[in-house]
Amino acid sequence: MTSPRRIHPNRYKGNPHGDRSRRHSSFDNNHAGLSLGSRDVIVAGQWVVLGRIGEGSFGEIFEVRDINTHRHYAIKRERRKENGGSQLKHENVMYDVLAGGDGIPQCHWYGHFDGFTCIVMDLLGPSLGQLAQSVSCMELDIATDLVSQMVSIVEHIHSRGVILRDVKPENFVFGAHLPPLYNDNDGVKPTCKQVFQDYWCTNDPKLYAIDFGLTCYWRDPHTGVAYSDTKKHIRDKTGTARYASIQVHRGNLPSRRDDLESIGYILLDLVLGGRLPWAGVHAKNSKAGWDKVWRVKVDTPLSELCAGLPQAVVDFIAYTRSLRFMDQPDYDRLRGFLHAAAAGPDHYNQPDQIVTSPPPLSNETDDDHYELFAMDDMKHHLPTVPETPKKVGWNTHKRLDMTDWTND
Ligand SMILES: Nc1ncnc2c1ncn2[C@@H]1O[C@H](COP(=O)(O)OP(=O)(O)O)[C@@H](O)[C@H]1O
Ligand SMILES: [Mg+2]
């Protein structure tokens, strides 16, 4: 077993035992002390900006300190738009709708500052995406445990009438007490178990969901009646192609089933060490990228996709794919698959009612919009000026120009 000190020689300094009482900051900043300097940025007279800790395709995240309590929080900001539209405003509403659930951070303040719309929320730690990047492999029992937590968090979100629509490892984060992770490309990466035991000093770190910017209601929040499938074809895809469900690739309206299918792809991604067959697909633009990923997803039989993995993993994904638009997912059953996958084949009786073959690209019974999509595709494939293929993220978020909150 590789010694963690050899893997992250500097990361362990001052924290050889993963001291959980210490809050770990993932930025280098000499303003982390308690005194206020004249150049400190203080949001709304209360939150001292300490440094930037993250960014997604849409927002930037800073660590802040409450000047009264000295507690640390995270602030997410979005530049204010002239038309008044705001994803963070929507996110703030969703924090209220989802409040109180296990794995849902608390929102402490929402407002405007310095040309930005801001949310102050609980400070959290490294993301599942960062963990996946910094380990050589993730053991099946760890992956199934983390994914089981995700199923429970998503169950809570669905129970409040909401779907996430952007389920990906970067949108699930661990607690703030866990030390930051470093993706040391030159060194030997530790296994996930090594990180947990030797660096984080925990066997079961808790996950939290963040980023509710793309959430929407699957049922009417006033009447509680589920929205039915409008059969509207969606051309501009929402979410992240790598984890998108096949129905979302088709341009169908997302519902609860699609969040769960995405969780299935995360499970695979974690245990395959990022080697999903559609990972690393190159395309000249987002539309072409989404289409290529879609093709690989439907062309790869589940048995091949999950080769060498327990049957319960196949069944997890097959079950999520078998759900219809309005179906109430059986979250216990999904957790059961995960439990069985970790327990081994001796503890598993395969359910026989799940079809394990992937849905075909066409001739799908509940997809009478395939024709329309095919026509859109043809329009899209009219000759264009050749471009150099590039690797693109295929997020639908638009990255905004953002100025810095300089504080040094
Ligand atoms: N409350 C938080 N505490 C610590 N880190 C966070 C927090 N919220 C977000 N982050 C980090 O910032 C990244 C981007 O945040 P996110 O809300 O997903 O932004 P976006 O909407 O742009 O995708 C996350 O992947 C995570 O690493
Ligand atoms: Mg995000």
- By CATH, the architecture of the largest domain is named Orthogonal Bundle
Q: Remind me, CATH topology of the largest domain?
A: Transferase(Phosphotransferase), domain 1
| Beta-strand content | 5-15%
Number of domains as seen in the coordinates: 2
CATH class of the largest domain: Mainly Alpha
The overall strand count is: 11
Tally of helical segments: 12
**Shape type:** globular
By CATH's scheme, which homologous superfamily of the largest domain applies? Transferase(Phosphotransferase) domain 1
Major sheet, described briefly? 6 strands, antiparallel
Helicity level: 25-40%
Give me the secondary-structure category.
alpha+beta
- Bound ions, cofactors and other small molecules, one mention each: adenosine-5'-diphosphate, magnesium ion
Describe what this molecule looks like in 3D:
With 408 residues, this protein is of the alpha+beta class. The protein has 2 domains: 20-124, Phosphorylase Kinase, domain 1; 128-381, Transferase(Phosphotransferase), domain 1 (Orthogonal Bundle), CATH 1.10.510.10. 31% of the residues lie in helices and 13% in strands. The protein has 12 helices and 11 strands. It has helices at residues 4-7, 87-98, 128-134, 140-159, 192-200, 246-250, 256-271, 286-299, 302-305, 311-322, 331-343, 370-380; strands at 42-43, 47-55, 60-66, 72-79, 107-113, 116-122, 124-127, 162-163, 172-175, 207-209, 216-217. The strands form 3 sheets. A 6-stranded antiparallel beta sheet has the order 1-2-3-4-6-5, covered by helices on one side. Helix 4 packs antiparallel against helix 7, helix 4 (140-159) runs antiparallel to helix 11 (331-343) and helix 7 runs antiparallel to helix 10 (311-322). The chain is globular and about 65 Å long. The two termini are 42 Å apart. Adenosine-5'-diphosphate (ADP) is lined by residues 53-59, 61, 74, 76, 105, 121-124, 127, 170-171, 173, 210-211, 213.
